[in-house]
Amino acid sequence: MYSYFLTIYSLVLFASDVNAYSSGSPDAFCQYDRLDGRNVILRPGHNVRPRNPAPHGYRLETGQFNPKSLRVTLRAAPNDYFRGFFVQATRADFPLEAINRPAYGTFRPLDANSQARRCRAAVGGVGGITHTNNRDKNVVSFDWYPPASCNLGNVQFVATVVKQYNEYWVDVRSPNVTGIGFQGERGILCQLYNDPFNTGIQQEVIRLLSQQQQQQGQQQGQQQQARTAG
Ligand SMILES: *[C@@H]1O[C@H](CO)[C@@H](O)[C@H](O)[C@H]1NC(C)=O
User: Fold this and answer.
1) What is the DSSP letter of 98?
2) Is 92 in the pocket of ligand 1 (CB under 6 A)?
3) Is the peptide bond prior to 53 cis by the omega test (within 30 degrees of 0)?
4) Contact, 30 vs 106, CB < 8 A?
5) Closest by Cα among 52, 132, 125, 122 to 85
6) How far is the CA of 93 from the centre of ligand 1 (A)?
7) Cα–Cα distance, 120 to 33 (Å, whole number)
8) Which of 15, 52, 146, 193 ranks highest by number of CB atoms within 10 Å?
9) In whole angstroms, what is the distance from residue 143 CA to residue 45 CA?
């Protein structure tokens, strides 16, 4: 549990690389050193602006839970293509550019066209997925695993889709996915999933974890004493 949480605090240097990323978004695409350095709108390092709000014809679709994962598919129109992409799960209807926008869960590729990417905001999960090559693609699918036993409310997948180096769109959204996770009360770690940048919750989690560590340490000490005495 402790190492799971530590990933939030591990410092990851933000590499500002401006290549074409023919082999997917860089490792640090979804990471950041300081919150205000976060690439929250998932914009590639290309020196051009996204084409939004021009129509694009790309669709982000979701299947049924099976039983623990959800199949996600990014699709171009029948005679169209994309070369690059980056997909994240986030809170439904939450603005892309909100600096405290959460990223949820873990992605797993289904074929050699995609690879998972860590996202710091994903609280220990592998919060994103990207392409591995710049061949023309009409469709790509992968699986998403929500964090276990957290009620996330409504979730939406959000994509950055790159057709060519100077032609890409951000904020391509799936329909809402509802009923994710159990419907009971949110544990403290779930609260952190829902509000990963809330320093009050972060401090409370750190306090509970260090308390837990101390208790474990004391128990071990007592066991040792019991063995020595016996
Ligand atoms: C999607 O989820 C958001 C946030 O829970 C909600 O406000 C909105 O009404 C939902 N939209 C649809 C179409 O269900």
Assistant:
1) -
2) yes
3) yes
4) no
5) 132
6) 7
7) 9
8) 193
9) 26
Q: Is 155 in the pocket of ligand 1 (CB under 6 A)?
A: no
Q: Give the span between the Cα atoms of 137 and 75, in whole angstroms.
A: 9
**Pair 202, 192: CB distance under 8 Å:** yes
Angle (nearest 5°) at CA 81 between 79 and 83 = 165
Q: Could you tell me the pTM of the whole model?
A: 0.75
Hey, how many other C-beta atoms are within 10 angstroms of the C-beta on 59? 17
Question: What Rg, from alpha-carbon coordinates, does the chain have?
Answer: 20
For residues 32 and 11, give the distance between their C-alpha atoms in angstroms, rounded to a whole number.
Answer: 8
Q: How far apart are CA 61 and CA 53, in angstroms?
A: 20
